[in-house]
Write a structure and sequence with these properties.
- The protein is built from nine helices and nine strands.
- The strands form two sheets. Strands 1-8-3-6-9 form a five-stranded antiparallel β-sheet, with no helix packed on it.
- It is of the alpha+beta class.
- It is about 40% helix and about 20% strand.
- The protein is globular and about 60 Å long.
């Protein structure tokens, strides 16, 4: 008597938004963004300084970072020569908790997997690898996903490589540590202070005082690591919390009160400005 055994998928990617390689000059600085899907940045060669929310990393070749949905992230090239990056973004609705706030240094097997993926992508696409001068915003450049709609075998092969990499990372890897510079610590302290005081909406002077620095230096640190002003970053933190509260079924009125908005209407306008959706549209998108 034959007994069937079910295949249980640990990770299931639903959609891709971008997938590309690019060479960035040594003076390049990506201004920062957040979006409602995951993004991975893999350093093929060179080194970069990456921020993700309050965490700062110096990354070198063969390292990969996972940016979770709604995480504010940016990077700049941190070496005397250019850096070659592979970036892809996607949605997955479960089983990604392990990858949140993580950077990994790939081992030999994992490097072979991602190199096999890159070779497959290059062999099946005619475009040359762009430089930063060829690109406006990286997220608008989707050089490796154009075939997803027309070639199911192509997309299936790509996903298979990525599943293999993710499974190996979840089972066999230790995350890398964060960069501990003075400015990075001030940035982390400031973000932590803002997270603990979202309802009171602290101003720049108050945040700087709590972190033992000046408002001017704090502004420079946020520009360096987040690409945003301090107030803008505070709003982005509020929207991240608001998104989770909407998922938890909390009413818009209660959310606006918890996060220190003067009215429900002002909160709704701010939420749509930051996420591109009204609170109701966001709620419907996750149901």
């Amino acid at each position: 008597m034959w007994k069937p055994y079910k295949v249980r998928e640990h990770i299931k990617i639903n959609e891709f938004y971008s997938m590309f390689e690019a060479n960035y000059d040594k003076d390049f600085e990506f201004p920062g963004e957040s979006h409602n899907f995951w993004e991975c940045v893999y350093v093929v060669s060179g080194s970069i300084c990456v921020s993700g929310d309050d965490r700062i990393y110096n990354m070198k070749n063969n390292q990969i970072i996972f940016h979770k949905p709604l995480e504010m992230h940016k990077f700049h090239i941190d070496c005397e020569k250019d850096a070659h990056l592979f970036i892809f973004s996607f949605t997955v609705h479960e089983n990604m908790d392990y990858f949140e706030n993580k950077v990994f240094l790939l081992n030999r097997t994992q490097t072979d997997t991602i190199n096999s993926l890159l070779n497959f992508l290059r062999e099946n696409n005619s475009q040359s690898i762009p430089t930063q001068k060829d690109m406006t915003l990286p997220m608008s450049h989707s050089m490796y996903i154009d075939k997803f709609d027309t070639s199911p075998s192509y997309s299936q092969s790509v996903v298979s490589y990525i599943y293999q990499l993710f499974s190996s990372l979840a089972n066999n890897s230790t995350p890398s540590s964060t960069l501990q510079s003075v400015d990075a610590q001030i940035f982390a302290d400031a973000v932590n202070y803002m997270n603990n005081n979202l309802s009171s909406s602290p101003d720049i002077a108050e945040i700087a005082k709590a972190c033992g620095t000046s408002p001017t230096r704090l502004k420079c640190i946020f520009a360096k690591y987040s690409g945003l002003g301090v107030h803008k970053y505070l709003i982005s933190l509020k929207m991240n919390v608001a998104s989770q509260l909407i998922k938890d079924g909390i009413t818009v009125t209660e959310i606006s009160e918890r996060l220190g908005f003067s009215s429900q209407g002002y909160f709704s306008l701010a939420f749509k400005r930051e996420t591109g959706m009204s609170p109701t549209e966001f709620k419907n998108s996750i149901n």
